[in-house]
Amino acid sequence: MNIAERARDFWDRISPRERRLVVIAAIAAPITIAIWLGLSIQDGLVAKEKANDKARKALVVLADLKARGPAQPTDDVVATMGTEPVSLDTYLTNAAQKAGFQLKGTTPRNAVTRNGFVTNSVSCQVSDLTIDQMKKFLQEIETASKVVVVTRLDLRRDFKAKEKLDATLEVSTYSKEPPAKGEAGGGSAGSAEKKGG
Fold first, then answer.
1. 127: Cβ–Cβ under 8 A, 6 or more apart, which residues?
2. Domain extents for the chain?
3. Which fold has domain 72-178?
4. Which residues does the chain have with pLDDT short of 70?
5. pLDDT tens across 7-48, in order?
6. Contact partners, residue 115, CB within 8 Å, separation at least 6
7. What DSSP assignment string belongs to 119-170?
8. Could you tell me if 124 and 92 are in contact, meaning their C-beta atoms sit under 8 angstroms apart?
């Protein structure tokens, strides 16, 4: 006996009241499943939209910080700037601790001297940070000292955990070029000669 014959035999054996219940169940089951699927999809879309909205806001903040770029020191900063550069390794380690994670290390770049200023830079990589941690880390770098800035930022999402961020940064600090030793000595000698003359 095939399935169609068994169904027909079952239909013939049940009462009219049971037949009505079977028809109602046959209609209600797909409708119920469709409604459940629709609500599940809607909940998933709402959650995804909230996550995307949060990520968009964070990216706007990060883009704003990146757009500021390696701003040259302003006059008031120059007045208080010394000839000894900030220790970027320690500076970034402290910024990372305030943001709630451990910095694995930094890679120093060659110092560049131009127009009487020395630029010291390091690069570092951070991974598996939440948006809030990344925001705090970058804010701490940009605000804790006026002579330290983020000069390059490459931001990307973690493929395994979509709510986490990875980034490669280059951070620079500025200091005044120290006077040449020969110039300082020569100036003193010249003054002595003038006094003697």
1. 158, 164, 166, 167
2. 1-68, 72-178
3. Alpha-Beta Plaits (3.30.70)
4. 1, 68-76, 182-197
5. 777 777 778 888 788 788 888 888 888 888 888 887 778 788
6. none
7. EEEEEEEEEEE-HHHHHHHHHHHHHH-TTEEEEEEEEEE-SS-TT-EEEEEE
8. yes
